[in-house]
Amino acid sequence: MSRAPLLPAVKAETTLGVLGGGQLGRMFVHAAQQMGYFTAVLDPDPSSPAGRVSHHHIQTDYLDPQGLAELARLCVAVTTEFENVPAQALAQLAATRPVAPAASAVAIAQDRAREKAHFVACGVPCAPYAVIDTAEQLAAVDEALLPGILKTARLGYDGKGQVRVKTREELNAAWAGLKQVPCVLEKMLPLASECSVIVARGADGAMVNFPVQRNLHREGILAVTEVYEGNLPAAVAEQAVAAAKSVATGLGYVGVLCVEFFVLTDGSLVVNEIAPRPHNSGHYTLDGCDLSQFDLQVRAMVGLPLVQPRLHSPSILLNLLGDLWFAPGSDEAVTPPWDQVLALPGTHLHLYGKLEAKRARKMGHLNITGATPEAVRAVALQAAALLGLEPF
Ligand code: ATP
Ligand code: MG
């Protein structure tokens, strides 16, 4: 379906909507406003990071019919920042407004079993797995999947809803512990590293991509992303981009999509999961690329041209979790040494305006850009040391 792009109007508000008011919504709002759009955020939390910076903030539940009707009334197009938004909410909005990504794509990303079936259908290898919906399926699990990770099919993030299991007994106990909700059991793979690729695809099928991001996770949460020539073997990077594009094409996807991968110790590449939205590992694009992932989210949803983004500086992202606001080993509140961090060249501090720091909560990120991979790594390691983060 081709349609005229939805550009901001003069003498009238042209408003773009986003479901979800977290930091991804906030950065979407910033990008949309930079282009002259007004914004509307739907999120029940009165102090949500995106709601606080948006022209309109509808404070209802995601399935509230009046909240959704108000969003549709205000907005010329709607996107999401949050994959656990009920797919029905997107479907309801799509009856009257362009919605990107579509409910059907979000529904697949919400469910690990459907997601894996999609990878198989696209011919992109993923970890060997079994779907566990019933006690019979649990009993029939192939021993070859152990040791493995039992993951809830729905609603997991940052390693939540996951249990590592070595034996059949541990697997049985873990499923009981997860209240016997639908799960997938994945074989534990020997990881050499992790990476992700972010693509943006338009309604006309045009697709562009950011370079491959090398990601380091700690305790199941993204800690560091490094992006520069040579961050991964060239053949792996090429394969990852091709795989991400086939996953997006297979979904008929419109919008920004992130595909996460494992690189195994034998050098092979395995897809992990997708996020139907901009991704934490793409926040470096705000400072390291000539277009950010949020710029492309705006363009894709309104039908403006998608241009291949260019990484103009080797970049490293350090995630800033709430732990940094506590003195080591105590509950005493502290302020991280921003003055020292910002004295380092090429540092860009992004804080999400969250009013309470909690351990493991994503409070912000620090982007570091430099002239060379060596230079950016040297500064990033200094910043990490100042913040008390482990070297990488
Ligand atoms: P996210 O916040 O990215 O949505 P999540 O909670 O959905 O995270 P996963 O991405 O499935 O979780 O897993 C979190 C991390 O656990 C991975 O980044 C990886 O480090 C590790 N992991 C997950 N599955 C496997 C596996 N099959 N083999 C080895 N390690 C794994
Ligand atoms: Mg993940």
From TrEMBL:
It catalyses: 5-amino-1-(5-phospho-beta-D-ribosyl)imidazole + hydrogencarbonate + ATP = 5-carboxyamino-1-(5-phospho-D-ribosyl)imidazole + ADP + phosphate + 2 H(+). GO terms for molecular function: 5-(carboxyamino)imidazole ribonucleotide synthase activity. ATP binds at residues 112, 151, 156-162, 186-189, 194, 217, 272-273. InterPro entries: ATP-grasp, ATP-grasp_carboxylate-amine, ATP_grasp_subdomain_1, PreATP-grasp_dom_sf, PurK, PurK_C, PurT/PurK_preATP-grasp, Rudment_hybrid_motif. SUPFAM superfamilies: Glutathione synthetase ATP-binding domain-like, PreATP-grasp domain, Rudiment single hybrid motif. Residues 116-302 form the ATP-grasp domain. This is N5-carboxyaminoimidazole ribonucleotide synthase.
